[in-house]
Amino acid sequence: MNYMNEDTGFVSGPVEFNDSNDLFGNLQKLEFAGLVITGAGLIGSGSPTICNAANIAYRREAFDEVNGFNDQLNLSSGDDEILMQKIDRETKYRTCFCPDKKAIVKTAANVSIHKFYQQRKRWASKGLFYADKLLIIKFI
Length: 140
Fold this sequence. Notes:
Blueprint: E1 8-12, E2 15-17, H1 23-44, E3 56-58, H2 60-65, H3 79-90, E4 94-97, E5 105-107, H4 113-125, H5 134-138
Parallel strand pairs: 1-4, 2-5
Antiparallel strand pairs: 1-3
């Protein structure tokens, strides 16, 4: 909550995979850390694009102002990112990243290459629904 002030509408926080005893889990942890750092950098540069729903907070007023998730109920992935982008684009509020180590949320890595592939395919598909199509071109 230290990052939620009167100007803030959306806060993205760090997420990491649990420690693993196998190579595949450790590779996922490293790859995922890169995604989190990329998301934090994009937020810091004023182009909030990616975040992880496992660790977000948003102001109710900002959520209501952009009609929450109403226009994305048909999506299986991306509600977190699209909400962040809408709040940043359509409200007076700013988006920030909370880098505090105490704010880290941990989650399990995928147990198989197939599950990893399905997850990344689902994550990549949400870019098709970004309102700002330049975000896709800008970061490819």
